[in-house]
Amino acid sequence: METNCKATLRLFRDAVEHGVSRFVFVSSIGVNGNVTQGAPFTEQLQPNPVSDYAISKYEAEQQLVSAAKESAIELVIVRPALVYGKNAPGNIARLAKLTSALPLLPFGLVDNRKSFISLKNLVSLLVLCVSHPAAANQVFLAADTETISTKQLIDTLANVAGRKVIQVPVPVGLMRSVARLLGKGALASQLLDDLVVDNTKARERLGWKPEEDLQSTLE
User: Domain range holding 56?
Assistant: First the structure.
């Protein structure tokens, strides 16, 4: 909260004081939630942050919106999906290490759908959000257009590393149960559940087009 919310609000107030005309806040898709069921996330859906990180980002969004109403500054909020690129941290880095270390992984039956966004695609959207007139006072969800399953992601990471990984067909329900017993239920959700993001608003309102596709960029 100190960094994601309080410091952000202080920076916003400094921006207003120094005559900045537009403030672009990079939030998180976690503000919408951590799982989609059937329909993808859109800007119209009610936020449902679950993790402490996402809650702090949503609190920052709300306070920025309130502060922006009392000033002449334009506010743009961008909620990106998981960002990937060279030396990407987080879950992609963990999966890359797993594919390099283990010849067998238990994701053979995982057929979920995940949205990601490449660093280059995110930057191109942020550039538009800085300057495009139609971006003012809007919220945009940021993601590549394609989705990928955890199984496909691991296969791709293994191919990049020049390794052969056998994906063992372990039942998804069994993996969830074991993860909960080990206190890793949140991690299991990240690996096994759907999280699909609809980027239509950014494409139609700003003319944004993701230049990189997920598969080739991962490779």
Answer: 2-218
